[in-house]
Amino acid sequence: MNWEVVIGLEIHTQLSTKSKLFSGAAVGFGAEPNTQTTLVDLGMPGALPVLNKEALRMAVMFGHAINAEIGMHSVFARKNYFYPDLPKGYQTSQMDHPIVGKGYLDVMLDDGSTSRIGITRAHLEEDAGKSLHEDFQGMTGIDLNRSSTPLLEIVSEPDIRSAKEAVAYVKMIHSIVTYLGICDGNMAEGSMRCDINLSLRPKGQKEYGTRTEIKNVNSFRFIEKAIYTEIERQADILEDGGRIVQETRLYDPDKNETRSMRSKEDANDYRYFPCPDLLPIELTEEYVDQIKANLPELPNQKAARFQEEYKLSEYDAGVLSASRAMADYFEQANSLVKDAKLTANWVMGELSKLLNQEQLEITQSPVSAKALGELLSRVLDNTINGKTAKDVLQAMWNGEGSADEIIEAKGLKQVTDTGAIEIMIQEILDANAAQVEQYRAADPDKQKKMIGFFVGQVMKASQGKANPGIVNPILAKMLKG
Amino acid sequence: MFEQSISVLAQKLRNKDISSVELTRTFLDRIAKLNPLLNSYITISEELALQQAQAADERLANGQGSSLTGIPVAHKDLFCTQGTLTTCGSKMLHNFIPPYESTVTQRIKDAGAVMLGKTNMDEFAMGSSNENSFYGAVKNPWNLDTVPGGSSGGSAAAVAAGLTVAATGTDTGGSIRQPASFCGITGLKPTYGRVSRFGMIAYASSLDQGGPMAKSAEDCAHLMQTIAGFDDKDSTCSETPKDDYLANLDTPLTGLKIGLPKEYFGDGLDPKVADVIMTAVKEFEKLGATVKEISLPNLQLSIPSYYVIAPSEASSNLSRFDGVRFGHRCEDPKDLLDMYMRTRAEGFGREVQKRIMVGTYALSEGYYDAYYLKAQKIRRLIKNDFVAALSEVDVIMGPVAPTTAFGIGSKADDPVAMYLEDIYTLSVNLAGIPAMSVPAGFADGMPVGLQIMGNYFAEAKLLNVAHQFQQHTDWHLQTPTMAKGA
Asked: With an 8 Å Cβ cutoff, are A46 and B325 in contact?
């Protein structure tokens, strides 16, 4: 059977506010357990929540960025369930009236095609604490530092039809929230987590199949792998005439499999109702418009500007603007180089290659944008050629110093002295008299192919330091005889 | 001394006729003698009270302080008090000493008042008789075989018996007004949002409101002056500026328009209580007020609406009592579920468990629309009734409760009869308006409270109306016999 996969994603993004959603406690990763808490986060009797207005502003920013209806009247609701790291016995979230309503994103895929993914809603909610099962001799430790940390849960429509599309969508969301500066995008630290709702149906069928939900997948790679794995699992069951059980599953990256966490029957009845401790949020047009007017440049806007301002191709502009960090890096480097195509090629090529090899983010690059800009300036002013520049970049990456220091230390400066080059060429022509004879006897078409041999010899003799722009015309002239 | 008003005591303290330490000792002595009969206090904070009295005397000696400086007060045991046991009348919190102070008690503390202790109450403020306390029933000082009302029964009994000058209470469905009525004292439930709920252990968040309980409207005004007003720690607290509650007490009532809702005088109202209320209304007419009959047609619906909304909120509010971080935890839990179940089964009393179950049911999938949502719609109707009525009259008057204090144990097995006790008070909480209970006379030797309801944020008006009544009557000055001997 030919199956079509139907995917909807729920992405939890941790908003980068200074304090928590409902208390003044600091938000931060890695602090000593239970040091970043107040009465509110601990769920003490009589403690009351007070909404962090910054979180509200960030949610509205996101709403604008996905072309959504903003919830002018939004309501916090309590989601009730018992868990030791949920101190109040309920999570304050939003149910019927979310802060962000229907919106959409146009996502560009690797093949250059675009698909529009609908976004059902995005709502504010507080995170729970953490249960720690190690180091407590069979008991459970509770760390409430994360309790009441602000999250924006972004719920997509079941519009996604492949793992690639899912990843492209999540990357786009990642790109938008980091562009907006409302989330640090650090997936390893849990700043973005994804729940994947997935079902299969025979191609052409309208009705959805039974879905499963894979909880808390926290990297692009795992999202892709979890989807492939789950598609395969569901397809196997369906091919064998079996039925999919509606349930929550966990993805285990070590074993690359999903496994059942709880079935629908075990699911909690969360008994949502409006939180009586928080008044409904009533926004004014003025507030919402003002946030819209002050929105920073978004990825697609930046891509358009890169095409316009730097004359970059659609593809290059798209790649460079996908992350704000990369776009900023590119623009900073190019402010020194002033040759956008050259800078773009290096950022997307050599630099990205090195980053990928060591699995680093561009923000972690040992070579700063300024340092790369200086290196490329030396290519433009003919101090070194492109090939040498690659070696210099590697040396810079290894921490051997700035481009100029390395060029100096290793004596990599190009030979641009035409006299010296003429002497070198003459030596090569003398040493290869037979090839010179052949060349001179050949027709122009053949000559074009043969000249490469001599260029190679010159480069070899100069240890790559001869400037090809100077070598080529002199060589052509001397070969003529 | 114990019968004096706050204004008189404040003057005496200022004139050095008496020190706060002396005054505090007087009350501590009375508590030692009479509280064993009444059980109105859960915690008596003698040492702290004397320290605070000492500090108050120093403030007064320096010519500083307010009208509450040096005045002994008591707090209902659901206001969190830093360093002092706060039980909410429950075994669940039998060991809970908050590291923080509620806004209400903080403001009273800052004003220089002396905290004598924490008063008994129905567990988690759920009850109308104060029989639902882990710390035992409270007795009514007017007749020790009867209940003081609830849930702020300890505060009411303590004020009535002269075991404190004044007290705080909270009112979710009548918990200030009904015990005030049963014990013959004056109590005010402010507009929802007038007084901060921060540090008040929640029963039903959309209905709970703290307020003063004292002998007179004037004493209540002194407390309101201190506790009312915006608090940025409570999102539901109103930013509407507070009034001067003392300034308008003496305004004459000439032209005051009083509405009497016919639904408040129907079946179920004890005729003797009705007589007392009608006599009081006549007194107001003598003071220049006019009276007209009005209608609050949805009164009967307030009971089902309240008993869905309040337990629903409670079922969620009380989830935090899980044995994980504070309060009671069962011995040797086998696993997580066992800990939850035994902790809560042991920690909560019957009435609390019942309301948690009712609320959990009402919020359940498939029942939410039929119960919670419908109850909210009724709530809107009830509110509309009051808004309409209060566009025609200045205040609404009626009984606080259908009867005077009933016998201890007499309604313990009939929860519906117990819930009907609240028929005249619940709707006020559902609407969010302010209301008072004012001593208006006696029926068979037991006090009867007149309920005065007003528009949103009209506390100053209510206090003025009540004060004028008290300038011309002496029901609020009556003292139960048991209190006189000490």
From this structure: no
B232–A50 CB contact, under 8 Å: yes
Q: How far is CA B112 from the centre of its chain?
A: 22
Say what the pTM is: 0.89
- Candidates B324, B276, B304, B284; CA nearest to B450 is B276
Residue B147 has pLDDT above 80, yes or no: yes
Find the mean pLDDT for residues A147-155: 97
The answer on pLDDT for B416 being more than 90 is: no
Determine the Cα–Cα distance for residues A349 and A316; give it in Å rounded to an integer. 11
Residues in chain A: 481
What's the gap between Cα B368 and its chain centre? 30
Q: What domains does chain B contain, in order, with CATH numbers?
A: 6-249+435-442+461-484 (3.90.1300.10)
| pLDDT higher than 90, residue A1 | no
Question: Cα B340 to the chain's mean position, in Å?
Answer: 31
Nearest to A48 among B86, B233, B321 (CB): B233
Tokens of A405: 């220091």
CB distance B325–A87 less than 8 Å?
yes
Q: For the residues B338-351, what does the mean pLDDT come to?
A: 97
Tell me the domains of chain A and their CATH numbers: 12-187+256-290 (no CATH), 297-410 (no CATH), 418-480 (1.10.10.410)
Under a CB-based contact definition with an 8 Å cutoff, are residues A367 and A373 in contact?
Answer: no
Q: Is the Cβ–Cβ distance between A200 and A163 less than 8 Å? A: no
Longest Cα–Cα distance in chain A: 99
Taking the C-alpha atoms of residue B316 and residue B304, their distance in angstroms, rounded to an integer, is 19
CB contact under 8 A, A45 and B197: no
Q: How many C-beta neighbours within 10 Å does residue B232 have? A: 11
The first and second tokens of residue B354, run together, are 């019942």
Closest CA to B74 of B175, B172, B194, B154: B154
| Predicted-complex ipTM score | 0.96
Residue B19: partners with Cβ closer than 8 Å, 6 or more residues away: B13, B53, B57, B70
Query: Length of chain B in residues, anyone?
Result: 486
Q: How far is B233 from chain A (nearest CA, A)?
A: 7
pLDDT tens-digit map of A2-31: 899 999 999 999 999 999 999 999 997 788
pLDDT value of residue A140: 85
Q: What is the average pLDDT score of chain B?
A: 97
Distance CA B347, CA B96 (A): 12
On whether the CB atoms of residues A233 and A210 are closer than 8 A, the answer is no
Indicate the pairing of strand A192-202 with strand A212-217.
Answer: antiparallel
Comparing A45-59, A368-382, B185-199, the range with the smallest average pLDDT is: A368-382
Task: Tell me the sheet residues that pair with B146.
Answer: B407
CB B245 within 8 Å of CB B221: yes
pLDDT mean over B3-20: 96
Beta-bridge mates of residue B453: B396, B435
A38-76 pLDDT, tens per residue? 999 999 999 999 999 999 999 999 999 999 999 999 999
**Chain B contacts to A (CB-CB under 8 A):** 78-80, 86, 88, 93, 96, 98, 100, 102, 197-202, 204-206, 232-236, 312-313, 315-316, 318-322, 324-326, 336, 340, 360, 363-365, 368, 372
Q: How many CB atoms lie within 10 A of CB B304?
A: 15
Q: Both tokens of residue B254?
A: 């000439």
Residues in chain A with CB shorter than 8 Å from the CB of B318 are 89
A184 is written with which tokens? 């640090």
Give me the total of CB pairs closer than 8 Å, taking one residue from chain A and one from chain B: 103
Give residue for tokens 């304090």.
Answer: A19
Which H/E stretch holds residue A13?
Answer: strand A3-14
Q: Give residue A444's pLDDT band: very low, low, confident or very high (50, 70, 90).
A: confident
